[in-house]
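Contributing new complexes? Match this layout with dinuclear copper ion.
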Amino acid sequence: MRKYSFIALAALGFAALLNSCAKGEKSASSGALASNAAEKVYVKPGTHDDFYAFVSGGFSGQLSVYGLPSGRLFKVIPVFSQDPEKAYGYNEETKPMLNTSHGFIPWDDAHHPDISQTNGELDGRFVFINGNNTPRIAKIDLTTFETTEIIEIPNSAGNHSSSFVTENTEYVVAGTRFSVPVPQRDMPINEYKGNFKGALSFLSVDPEDGRMDIKFQLMMPGFDYDLSHPGRGKSHGWFFFTTYNTEEANSLLEVNASQNDKDFIAAVNWKVIEEYVNNGGGTKMPANYAHNVYDEHTHSATSTMKKEVLVVDPLKVPGAVYFLPTPKSPHGCDVDPSGEYIIGNGKLSADLTVHSFTKMLDAIEKKKFDGEAYGIPILKFEDVLAGTVNSGGLGPLHTEFDGKGNAYTTFFISSEVVKWKLETWEVVDRQPCYYSVGHLMIPGGNSRKPFGKYVMAMNKITKDRYLPTGPEVTQSAQLYDISGEKMELLLDFPTIGEPHYAAGIPADIVKKNSKKIFKLSENKHPHATLNDSEVRIERNGKEVHIYMTMIRSHFNPDNIEGVKVGDKVYFHVTNLEQDYDVPHGISMIGAQTSELLIMPGQTETFVWEPKQVGVWPFYCPDFCSALHQEMQGYVRVSPADSDIELSGTLGE
Ligand code: RUQ
Ligand code: CUA
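Output block (do not edit by hand):
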């Protein structure tokens, strides 16, 4: 029976989508005409946007940086994927960033960026983001906008309920989507039920330098853990995770994981577990995972394999975990700025379920349980329910808050953003999205202090919204003004990859800390060439190391002889410039790595393995000065048995 109702719901949803597309077209154009939408997103040439938006790239594995309200793209920060533009993952310095227990993995699926917080407010120091595919959490430093740390998550798979930070960035949290055998082993898949486990990982973040470490993993029943958010204010100390597939099906999940009328939101009291762990609780379990750290002074990354992780059994910590029944395979799990309301969006439902933190504590205190799952107490739905939003939409996914008592929920199937009021649960506005919206973002929307001026919707499908580009068309974001009673669509702009979540922050918090150059005096790269007197070329068997400098508009040296076929040539190149925005690049014909783009004061290395005898040019690929085209040089490559001596010259 259940199966039929699910299919009916999906069909209904499809009809609703078609409907809303047709309706929406009209209201959007009249909306734009009726106001000064263009003016509201116009950022005059030479002036700055009010907000940064860090938008996940989904299957591009990267994070892009946009300005709001203009929707202008400033930078794509390489995180989990190699990037030839910046040589990330290609040069010798950053290759270790992509090391994992599965070897060098130069791709991932990046979903949920979240900005570091102090006292529940955005502090603009770091952005964290998860890699789903080969479970990893990355940290991006917002002084350099570079990825400076990646830690692999063992015992995890499809790292999706990640990476969300607690109120003082005590933890960045990573929950497994797929449950797996822990430890991994060869076993029949159909013995999933009762045997697989779901690890929820709490990564501590050092308050001084931001260094991450897996503090503990909570070993939960074998459900799918979809999304999560921290408690804040009164609920600080708790973390909430949506689950689906509490049926523990292992095949045809679209039917078999939609059997239960309610799945759970898992409420985890991390403070109690932290105390338990600090007092010696938990079990050290053998593991194998990479911890990769980029050092700004050596301009280089190191990768360390870790061999142990601390595992906590929830049943051993009284008061650590409770289940809140939540209808219809909930996806988004969002907490309002006060910390009182926990919203579970049942993606097969039309209504939103809002749980009350106060009621939850009360029910726990009175031990009003409705059974248990694998020993974890289940609270009674009615006892924790704060209210239901009868939305009239279909397929609710994610909710954000404006800090003025309103919440905004996306509906995938009916393709719209719905505005509703906290506490009265009444729907007050709705606007169509083009089309099939997933996440939405209000700057600071996952904090105690949202900046409720704009909401950005991230859409899965664009169809006819842009010029066609063959079968694959862009995905996109849409910006709405939410400063008034009614939301107003202002702008469409294309995104890179599939935008899942985004994190926004007032520009002023970040831009004052943005680094302009790397100081040469602080360059501790082991192969740096800090002035022209250190320029040299050394041979070590078949390895040749060229210690080279660059400054407007030449390389030193620019003529190199004595390299032989079969050599492995390392170019260690230092940019001696100390002015803002004067990078230089170097690219070598036939090099199998990418070019390098080197910032002022920085050193980078690439490897070239010449295969053919000849005189081969290299050049600077970044138009750095009026004489940029003159910034070039040659390497003479002689036969393997040649006895030409290594030499490098400039101006001779
Ligand atoms: S998901 S469209 Cu990967 Cu955050 Cu909800
Ligand atoms: Cu340096 Cu062009």
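Reviewers usually confirm one structural detail per submission. For this one: The radius of gyration is 27 Å.
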